[in-house]
Specification:
Belongs to the peroxidase family. Ascorbate peroxidase subfamily. It holds the Pfam family peroxidase. Keywords: Calcium, Disulfide bond, Glycoprotein, Heme, Hydrogen peroxide, Iron, Metal-binding, Oxidoreductase, Peroxidase, Secreted. It is an enzyme of class 1 (oxidoreductase). With 193 residues, the chain is mainly alpha-helical. It has a domain of 135 residues: Peroxidase, domain 2, CATH 1.10.420.10. The strands form 2 sheets. It has a two-stranded antiparallel ribbon with strand order 1-4. The protein has a two-stranded antiparallel sheet with strand order 2-3.
Length: 193
């Protein structure tokens, strides 16, 4: 997802800094080490984001990216079968495409936002208040904790969500930049020179 992609889906736009040095190699494992697991609770999510220099406010705003996209059954199976902080009808709908047995339907996909999965807006937060977060980690953002008020504020004001999302994306883009002769300034951000 980039600034152009968000805008094409109805979301906000922002200027992406140019001249940043990028690595000439990629590490799938290294990247995944910094992505919170979908089973994370609020304290763990907050801690993992803080380790990257992002606040809890940034975390809630950036989680709004889940207004688009899909998740594999393996990532939400435990939530739709075992958790109690989920709407029963929503859970049954998700269970119909995600069998309880591990190894069966593991790669089946479900939209992170059942209502508007291809539009970038604030319905993700509305889903959380209705206990329709697909991932356990999503529903943790509205579960009687410290982030409930922020979720409510994004429901009340999509423009506040967009503004905070842009701030979070810019901050995320500044995490551990390469300096000196490390990496390269790319001519095309999608591939090495």
């Amino acid at each position: 997802m980039d600034a152009d992609g968000d805008m094409q889906l109805g979301g906000p736009s922002w200027d992406v800094k140019v001249g940043r040095r990028d690595s000439t190699t990629a590490s799938f494992r290294g990247a995944n080490n910094n992505i919170p697991p979908p089973t994370s609770g609020l304290a763990n999510l907050t801690s993992l984001f803080a380790a990257q220099g992002l606040s809890q406010k940034d975390m809630v705003a950036l989680s709004g990216a889940h207004t688009i996209g899909q998740a594999r059954c393996t990532n939400f199976r435990a939530h739709v079968y075992n958790d109690t902080n989920i709407d029963g009808t929503f859970a049954r709908t998700r269970q119909s495409g995600c069998p309880r047995t591990s190894g069966s339907g593991d790669n089946n996909l479900a939209p992170l936002d059942l209502q508007t999965p291809t539009v970038f807006e604030n319905n993700y937060y509305k889903n959380l208040v209705c206990k329709e977060g697909l991932l356990h980690s999503d529903q943790e953002l509205f579960n009687g904790g410290a982030t409930d008020a922020q979720v409510q504020s994004y429901i009340s004001s999509q423009s506040t969500f967009f503004s905070d999302f842009v701030t979070g994306m810019i901050k995320m883009g500044d995490i551990t930049p390469l300096t000196g002769s490390n990496g390269q300034i790319r001519k095309n951000c999608r591939r090495i020179n």
